[in-house]
Design brief:
Layout lengths: L1 E5 L2 H20 L1 E2 L2 H24 L4 H11 L8 H11 L17 H4 L5 H26 L5 E2 L2 E3 L9 E3 L11 H7 L20 H10 L2 H8 L5 H10 L8 H16 L4 H14 L10 H7 L19 H16 L1 H17 L1 E3 L4 E5 L3 H6 L3
Antiparallel strand pairs: 1-7, 2-3, 4-5, 6-7
Length: 377
């Protein structure tokens, strides 16, 4: 059990006033365009039904569906990822991405996205629309009141780090990265005033800045203070062996979200290399001059991802080996003070059984190494 408690008047004030502020947000609520919501749900219901019929009846999908029916008969469930995994990887002999600890084929979105079959593409599209329909739009519909307002529940006391959480529905999890789903869900939220607009505020690099307050890594501080530097651009260049002139926004995005932040929060080269390699095909990454990244990497001597066995050392000339070297330089050269802080912070926790945050809270209990480093941030 994790124990977190205020140890200063500032800590208590932050928690107390934060709770009061969020309760006011909850009371005020958010105005919903209920007519748009109803229309969009009906539109999605029709599209999901159409995709389901196409998976069953279209010529390009019939082979997979017939194989599915042959294996499961009346128990065929198009919503079952486990059934789909067995059909694709056992019956149709398509190369999979391994199995789970329970021995089942991995058949989540990441495991299916690279399979070039019309049936799988329609299946993933239908799953995406079902989630938009039930989790997002359906969640809003269930909770909107008779006046067209949503009053989600905001909390500061249910998460061990006192980070805010939201339920009924979770309005902290409104989609934005999937532009299509975002275009369906976000228009539900409208201003409470005629001709009003909704504004959006975002803290620039807030987690990196808070992290630097703790570890005081000079390179990290330089990236924050010097506007001519760009950490994510530099890591994108290193990951894909590019020059500054070859970088693109898409490559920078991949470096930021598939390597830098995962590294900061405790991930390792093995999973990051797979994610960065898969992104090349999924996002059709190219250099600024238009050269496909895999073609470019081949010229640089990297021809394949490498052996996906975490217990074996990656071989030279593979992307796994390259990203392992990137990881060594990341912590051993670029952010070595940050790396030492994580070790020192962990050892201090083991001795004391707790750590104190700058916001005035003491955190203790059963925590692993990642939690001890990440909770303060």
């Amino acid at each position: 059990m994790t124990i977190l408690r205020p140890i200063s008047s500032e800590g208590y004030k932050l928690f107390h006033e934060g709770t009061l502020a969020l309760s006011q947000v909850e009371h005020n609520g958010m105005r919903i365009d209920t007519k748009y919501l109803g229309r969009t749900i009906k539109k999605l219901d029709k599209k999901i039904a159409q995709l389901s019929n196409e998976m069953k009846e279209s010529a390009e999908c019939r082979r997979v569906y017939k194989t599915w029916r042959k294996r499961y008969g009346v128990k065929t469930n198009l919503g079952s990822h486990e059934q789909l995994g067995r059909v694709l990887f056992d019956d149709l002999k398509i190369k999979g991405k391994g199995t789970t600890k329970s021995g089942r084929w991995k058949s989540d979105k990441d495991a299916l996205e690279d399979i070039d079959l019309p049936f799988v593409k329609k299946y993933l599209e239908a799953e995406k629309l079902k989630k938009a329909r039930s989790t997002y739009l359906g969640g809003i519909l269930r909770e909107v009141d008779s006046n067209g307002f949503l009053h989600p529940v905001f909390n500061l006391h249910t998460v061990a780090t006192y980070r805010s959480s939201v339920s009924d529905p979770n309005t902290q999890n409104i989609p934005i990265r999937d532009t299509y789903v975002a275009s369906l869900v976000r228009p539900c939220f409208i201003s409470r005033w005629r001709n009003g607009q909704i504004g959006e505020a975002d803290f620039s690099g807030v987690e990196v800045r808070v992290s630097a307050c703790y570890n005081k890594d000079p390179q990290l501080l330089t990236y924050i203070k010097d506007k001519t530097t760009d950490m994510h651009r530099d890591m994108g260049m290193e990951c894909y062996k590019l020059s500054k002139s070859q970088m693109t926004k898409e490559i920078r995005y991949c470096a930021k979200n598939r390597l830098v932040f995962p590294f900061f929060y405790g991930d390792w080269f093995f999973s990051c290399a797979q994610s960065l390699w898969d992104a090349i095909d999924r996002m059709k990454l190219k250099t600024a001059q238009g050269t496909p990244l895999k073609e470019y990497l081949r010229k640089k001597g990297i021809t394949k991802l490498g052996n996906l066995d975490p217990d074996k050392e990656p071989l030279p000339r593979t992307f796994l080996y390259h990203i392992k070297q990137v990881e060594k330089r990341f912590w051993g050269e670029r952010f070595k003070v940050y790396d030492k802080w994580k070790v020192d912070w962990w050892e201090a926790f083991l001795k004391k059984g707790y750590f104190d945050t700058y916001t005035g809270f003491r955190c203790g209990g059963l925590l692993d190494r990642k939690q001890v480093s990440n909770y303060p941030i």
